[in-house]
Amino acid sequence: MQMRLREKELETEVRLKELEAGGRRESSVYGSKGQDPLKLIPPFDEGAVSQFFERIARGHEWPREKWSTFAQTAQKGKALKACDTLSFE
In which domain of life is the source organism classified (predicted)? Predict the structure, then answer.
């Protein structure tokens, strides 16, 4: 839900900037729309991810002692490597 809201906010910001520029679009290194892709990607918010996971876990009444195991099964890439380096203590 928060991601959709953020996406709509970004779309609105882009549209406002286009209107401020008189609707003109310049060709640039970012493509014909001239938009910097890094400005369109919402920042990663680990707090929002953990809150989302916690809501799901509570809603399904998962045992709290199993949360880390369940969360680790969804990890990919660097997050998975980081989890692999943790001890079981």
Answer: Eukaryota
